[in-house]
Amino acid sequence: MVHVKKVEIFGFKSFGFRNTTVNFEPGLVSISGPNGSGKSNILDAIIFAMGENKPKVMRVDKLRSLIHDIEGSGRRGPKMARSSVHFDNTDRKIPVDSDVVEITRELDENGDNTYYLNKKKTQRSHVLDLLDMANAGLGQLNAVQQGTVTRISEFTSEEKRKTIEDLIGLSYFDEKKSESIKQLDEADRRLEIALAKMGEIKKRIDELEEERNQKLRHDILERELNRYKAISAANKMKTISLQKSEKEGKLDGLKSQITTLDGERSILRDEISVLDAEKSKLMNAANDYTQAKATLDAEISSAMEQYEIDNTAISASNKRLEQINTRLPQIKIELEEIVNARADIDSQIQKIKDSIEITNGEKNKINRDLELIDSERNKILTEQSEAAAKKSEIDNKIRILTDQSNNVKLKLSKILHEKEESELKIKSNSEKLNELEKDIVELTTLESKLSSLTNNHQDTISELKSRISKLKTKKLKIIHDMDELGFILEKSDKAANQYESKIKTVKGFMHEDYTVAKLKEDADKLGIDGLVYEMISWDKKYERSVLAVSSDWIKALVVKDFATLLGIAEVARSKKLPKLKIIPLDAIPKFKLSMPKESGIIGVLSDFVKCADTYSALKTFLFGNIILADSRESAYNLSQLGYKSVTLEGEFFEAKGGTVVIDINSKISKLTKLISMSSDIDGLIQSISLIKKYMLKKKYSLKKLEDSIQSYSDRLSISENALTSASENYTNLKSRIISAKNTKVQLTKRISDLISRNNIISSEVSTNESHLESLLDRIGIVEQNYASGEQTRIASELSKINIKKSDIEKLYTSIMNDYRDKSSQLTTMQTQDNREKSQTTRLNDEENSLHLESEQIESKIDDLEKQKDPKREILEGLRQKEQELISTSGSSIGEVQEIDSKLKTLTEKDMDLTKQINNFERQSDSLNRDLHDLIENETKLQQILSAFGFDKNMETFDVDPIVQGLTTELSSLNALNAKAPETYLEVSYGYRSMSVRKNSLEEERTGIVRFIESIERDKRQTFLDAFDKVDKEIRLIFNKMTGGNAWLELQNEDDIFNSGISYLIQFPNKPKRESTSISGGEKTLAAIVFVLALQKLKPSPFYLFDEVDAHLDAPNAERLSTILEERSKESQFIMVSLKDSVIQKAKLIYGVFPKNGVSNVVTYKDKRVPSVKTT
User: Fold this and answer.
1) Would you tell me how many other CB atoms lie within 10 Å of the CB of residue 994?
2) Which of 430, 731, 1010, 1150 has most Cβ atoms within 10 angstroms of its Cβ?
3) Are 1120 and 22 in contact, with CB atoms under 8 Å apart?
């Protein structure tokens, strides 16, 4: 097994800068030495090399402190610490192909670490991984440091539970659960989305259903309306015919009138043309007048514009002058109001100043009073200090005497308590002695009974073994007969292959079953890698063995991981396919079969099966725990040792079950003769049927025989267990008798020692009582000599002075508050006064500004009036020129006016005629449009009638009210969805599909919930199994060490992982108590038992113990060393201890001693002859 062979230390802690080699052996190794010698540093060196990085674990403040003499100057070269641990690896538990694994760690003075594996550089993580694979990693249970036991003894109930969880790796279940919860959240999210979509679709379906109904109603109303419209159209056709005749007559009359009026208008327009020619001649003469007139008008307009600008400016200036005259009186009124307000403010300011003066006087008087009071108070305090000094001197004397009396009282109390305990111990030990003598008598009687019971069990076991042997012989004969029949049946099947119909049957039977065939259709989509028999192969020689073992697994599906398995299972469930077997490759555990040392073993069957490296785990899963044997006897013997085995002929034996499974497919060779005897297929089938019936009878007999063997085996197992139990009880009983006798001797001696000690204690009690009485008398005398009246008087006067001072200080505070209020009022009034001053200044400035502006405006008005007179004279001259121009052009204008008068008359007549013609043409156009509309309406109505199969001469009636009602109802059906019926069908189909999807998601969610529940169950069961194992170990170890009882209890079995574990202790003849409620030594013992029990959960090949027995008494240390000696057969224990019991039982002993500040190691090979090894 893996164990520490050697550790080499250089420059590490107390080991100096030279190589120190410590060799170890399997079993219990003891390291001893005086305090401070460096014995614990050997264990620190081992865990340092193994990768420990926490300084506190190695009892230093920082890693650099591990280097020897790091702050000194004793070494010239670079300082470093190095530790090399050599592990025995002959069993290859550490996955390194070497019999010895050397792990080295170097730490330089800069704090940098370097790791080596077999002299080659490596990483710390690689070292930790290798050690973990051998279950030899760092941990508080396989490297128990100083103080670890103390910490464990103080564990809370939750910490105890957490320790077990960490040891058995329950975090794996939590990770699986966390992953599954994520999947559940995702499934819930998808389901929620699906439900939300279904809700939206359902709402949409309801809307579409309403829209569809409206559309159908609309179509019905529309058809009905069209029918009544046809009837209405026939009515309108008759009316339209009458209207068309009437309008055609009117149109003919209008056309005649238009022709007459058009002739008259042509004559009139000829006259107008003659007058226009005469007017043109006169207008040429008037053009010169027009141009002169235009020039003069422009000059008049410019002069008028300049004149108006001056008028506007004068008007604006007068308006601003009015505003200034209005504002000036207002300013005077405001100034008068401010002067009055300032007078009031000045009066108030003066009153406030007078009040502040009075307050200042009161404040100064109070300050003088306070000075007088402080003077009196200081005088009294001086007197008090003198009195206190005197009292302190007296108190010191009293305190010294009181301390002496208390010490005597304490010592007396301890002595009395010791006396009581001594008397109780004498009484208790006497009672124990009496009980022990009774127990020895009872145990001796019980010993003879157990001896007789053991003999009876041995006789019963011999008888049962004889019967089982006979039944097994008979069973082997039946199996041999069934083998022969199996040969015949296989030959029959082979011969049947020559018939075509049988070939199809065999093919159907050998092909994958229905479920596999259905799933293989979507193999790529589902993630199916293939079937088992497609992925493995074997030599012909091993065919029978492989087929016999693989059974139905040969047709199992192979997938990469567990998630794919769940997906395929879900598909199979949704398709309602039969059950199937699936192998997820990532769920196959890694294991290696430990081979027994028996004859007839060929090897592990998986070694003779071939497959791709990717699927190597598959052959380990199917054949990794099956041993291939060379004969039936060898296979049977292996099965009885608890191994599954199979022969080359295909005979398969279950572990300890005695069951033999023979591969039918390997027995084909002997059936040819029987098949050849059958002339047709019916004869062949009949023969096979008879053989099968006979085989069924044999199988039934074999089953009864196996039941009998099983029954006898069960009885044998019960008897063997009973014998084992009786033997253990007998052994335990003998040890208990020896222990009881030894205890009796010890109790007798202990009682004698206690009686002697009790007599000495009685003497000490008398002496201390006398001393205490003397001290109390002296204290009384000192107290009488001290008078406390002076102290009381001083305290009374000081109290009066303090009250008086307090009252004056309150008055002072009140006055100061009043002073602050008045100062605040003064500041406010002064601010207001300043504000009024500022307002007065502003108004004065405004008044001056307005006076100045008024003067400027008046000057501006005078200037504008002077500019206006010349412009007026220019305008009057232009008006005179205009009148002269008009008088010279009067004659030509008169002639033009006369022609214009005639043209006007003729034009009015022309316009009147044109108006009449236009009126008649408009009436004609209107009649034409009406006729066109009537013809169009007639055509449309005819089409309506034709569409419904009617004609205009049909019988009609008044349908307008009906049409109106239907039209109103039809118009109320607005915003119709024309595609509502088709959309309704599509959305309804989508809703059904979504419902199927929802059901699928619900099934998926249910599957995940079930998986989480299974994880919780597995986690709970794994924890309970570990809990039971630790509980069992605690009961056993504690009983061995103390003879008492200890056990674990779950505080809440319904909620294991949110509650704790109670560790209950019951020492002999004491009530049960929690482990945290017992004394220090008992706590240490209980903690050590707990550690030893926990180590059984995850056994390590070696353990490092650093003075874990330091607080144990000699008997318990002896028992602990006995347990460690027993366990050292399975694991190596390297233990630092000062206890003789450990040294006596150790296989190898080391002593450590300091010399010149450096630790030296002494090796005792045979526990007697010392030899020093420090190189």
Assistant:
1) 17
2) 1150
3) no
CB contact at 8 A, 1130 and 1142? no
Between strands 626-629 and 601-604, the pairing is: antiparallel
**Could you give the C-alpha distances from 1035 to 427, 641, 738, 1041, 1099, in angstroms and in order?**
29, 30, 21, 10, 18
Q: Which of 603, 606, 566, 609 is nearest to 590 (CA)?
A: 606
Most confident of 459-473, 577-591, 991-1005, 1125-1139: 1125-1139
Work out the mean pLDDT of the chain and round it to a whole number: 79
Largest CA distance in the chain: 179
**Closest to 146 (Cα-Cα) out of 1111, 1116, 1086, 1105:** 1105
User: What tokens appear for 509 in the block?
Assistant: 């039977």
CA terminus-to-terminus distance, the chain? 27
Cα(9)–Cα(58) distance, integer angstroms: 15
What secondary structure letter does DSSP report for 590? Answer: P
Please state, in angstroms and rounded to a whole number, the distance separating the CA atoms of residues 1121 and 1115: 10
Q: Phi-psi bin for 545: left (phi > 0), alpha (psi -120 to 50), beta?
A: alpha
b (16+ CB within 10 A) / e for 135-145? ebbbeebbbbb
* H-only helix segments in 140-170: 148-153, 157-168
- Summarised one tens digit per residue, pLDDT across range 267-320 is 877 777 777 777 666 666 566 666 666 676 677 667 676 766 777 777 777 777
Measure the CA–CA gap between 1108 and 1095, rounded to whole angstroms.
Answer: 15
Integer Cα distance of 482 and 853 in angstroms? 143
H/E stretch holding 861 reads: helix 789-888
For residue 122, what pLDDT is reported?
A: 94
Cα 329 to Cα 340, 519, 772, 854, 1018: the distances in Å are: 17, 111, 110, 14, 105
Tokens 């003069």, residue located: 296
Q: Is 149 exposed, middle or buried (0-12, 13-18, 19+ CB in 10 A)?
A: buried
How would you class 527 by CB atoms within 10 Å of its CB: exposed for 0-12, middle for 13-18, buried for 19 or more? middle
Strand order in the sheet with 1158-1164: 143-144, 1102-1106, 1132-1136, 28-32, 1148-1155, 1158-1164, 1170-1172
Supply 553's token pair. Answer: 């697994």
Q: Quick one: tokens of 1089?
A: 């038992």
Cβ within 8 Å of residue 657, ≥6 positions away: 639
Residue 1052 in contact with residue 150, Cβ under 8 Å? no
CA distances from 576 to 572, 963, 997 (A): 6, 62, 16
Q: How do the residues of the chain divide into helix, strand and coil, expressed in percent and rounded to 5? A: 70, 10, 15
Give how far Cα 657 sits from Cα of 481, 482, 648, 1033, Å. 20, 19, 20, 30
Instruction: With beta carbons less than 8 A apart as the criterion, state whether 1050 and 1061 touch.
Output: yes
Using CB atoms within 10 A of its CB, is residue 436 exposed (0-12), middle (13-18) or buried (19+)?
middle
User: Amino acid letter at 190?
Assistant: R
Query: Which tokens sit at 446?
Result: 């019980």
Between CA 519 and CA 1167 the distance in angstroms is 72
- The C-alpha atoms of residue 48 and residue 55 are separated, in whole angstroms, by 10
Segment 694-718, tens digit of pLDDT: 777 777 778 888 888 888 788 888 8
Tokens 């009294």 belong to which residue? 380
86, 3 contact by CB (below 8 A): no
